[in-house]
Structures are given as structure tokens and as C-alpha cells.
# Entry
Amino acid sequence: MTYSPPPLAPLDYLYTDPSMIIVNKPHGLLSVPGRGEAKQDCLLTRVQRDFPDALTVHRLDMQTSGLLVFARGPEMHRRLSRQFQDRKVDKLYVAVVIGQPENKSGEINLPLIVDWPNRPKQMVDFELGRPSLTRYRVVSTAADGRSSRVELEPVTGRSHQLRVHLLSIGHPILGDDLYGGEAEFMADRLQLHARDLAVFHPLTEERLEFHCPVPF
# Structure
């Protein structure tokens, strides 16, 4: 697939100070550089045009939009990264999935591992997979019953976790070109957005909460 990042434009910063940056990542933009010259344009390089000391703390898939945290300098990077490692950061995503989940809320607890012959795809593997947990809640269902809007809380942060977990219960995300099947063609983009994020400030330790409206 050819990488066609969105045109250069002013970034949507929700918060900036000398320690950290919160920005709304556009759909279709890599979080960090990929392999090859054609994939060097990414959110990190764009943020570094404004803040040269910005460092990546976590990532979103290219097709996912929403809230991302960047640290300013190595010490703030260490402190913020530790919060993610210790699961002190609260994240809430919104997705639109095919069909109607049988349960209005619940947990998906399925171990994940990279599907080596089909990289970058991931898959459920009960023998070798890493523990992976997602909590979900159905917010609404379309009048025709063909899709539902769900809130997702990833307790762990595995690659493609939300996409594979929803696929595993029979409700892939609309617009997903890796796992969607027929759902891929029900939307013009991946219907997954990082809407809410709460993190502790790396210097003051104040809990900061951020919200980024869903664009679909």
C-alpha cells in the first residue's frame, strides 16, 4: 500500500509546556518514521519542526486518529514512559464496529503475538501470545443494526490490540484494511479514535485529563 500522508498543516496541539506535548494525530499519518525514504514524514517529525526536543512516548496506528503524548527531552521521556509501563495512564478509544455485540459491556482477554508470515498483522495465540486485555462498552447501535459504536479501554498496549480483539469477538472495526473483511468497505477510513487520555504531569505530578472529539 502506498503511503499518502495528509498534507502539511498546523498541528492540533491540546497542551504544550517545557515538559510535555499533547497532540491530536491526524488519520493516515504514521506516528514515527517507517522503513524507507517515502515513510519519513510522520507525526514525530512534524512535531519536531515546532519542538525540536520532542520524543515519542507511545504510538497510534497510522490509520488511527487521536491523542498522543510527546516528551520534551530525555528525562521527561523517562518519566512519562514509566507511567505507560506502570499502566498509570488512562486511555479511552471510540470505534464503530460491524454488527451488534451480544453483551453491552465486557472484557476481551486474549493473548496476542505477531503473525510472522503476514506481518504487520497480529493474531491470538494461547501458547506464545502476550497477555492482552481490553474492556469495552456498547454506546449505541445503528437503526439498521449493521454497526455499533463502542468505547474501548486498552488495559494493556499491544500492537493492533483493539483491532484484533474486536475481530476475535466477531465485530471488526469499520474501514479496517487488515482485519475488517467486509467491514473494510463500510467506511472510508478506520473508525478508531483515541478520544480521552489522563496522564500525570512529569514534574508536578498533577493529573491532567484531555478530550479530543471523535471525527466520525
